[in-house]
């Protein structure tokens, strides 16, 4: 992903026939929007009247969560770039020669390694997103009630990022022949998705209770 590309430019690239950006990059962007929205909630909370009524422990939680979200804003932009790089690198493997039996063997081995490397980016993105949910939860509990719906939007966007990332893991997993490895990754993804679903439901319950 080009640095400082415009939103219009990114959408045009995404909608074009170019190989990248694609779904993995879009998933990372969705997570980045979630992180940015959560940062906004905290920035519109700190210094307000309700915030001043909180005890030092809660204020500390809010401040820490804001700093964490600001870091996530950077990390998730990096994931967009990593996804595009991983895809490009994997495509190069398919260009390896396959004229002789030895070349075919080497190529097949590299393709298997390539699938594993390619799924690492979306898997790590999904893992990172789970950590971000902790801060969205804090925003929904203690954030400015005038913008608590934005914490809800953040929770929804983050779940979309996680489910999209797991889908991209499964796309690559389909090409892997190591059944033990596949089983391990599938279990890990199921755990992440369940945890994400629980977080999203918990946060949205809080948000809806505050906007009634």
UniProtKB/TrEMBL annotation:
The lineage of its organism: Bacteria, Bacillati, Bacillota, Clostridia, Eubacteriales. Coiled coil: none annotated. Keywords: Hydrolase. Its EC number is 3.5.4.9. Residues 6-190 form the Cyclodeaminase/cyclohydrolase domain. GO terms for molecular function: methenyltetrahydrofolate cyclohydrolase activity. It comes from Clostridium colicanis DSM 13634. This is Methenyltetrahydrofolate cyclohydrolase.
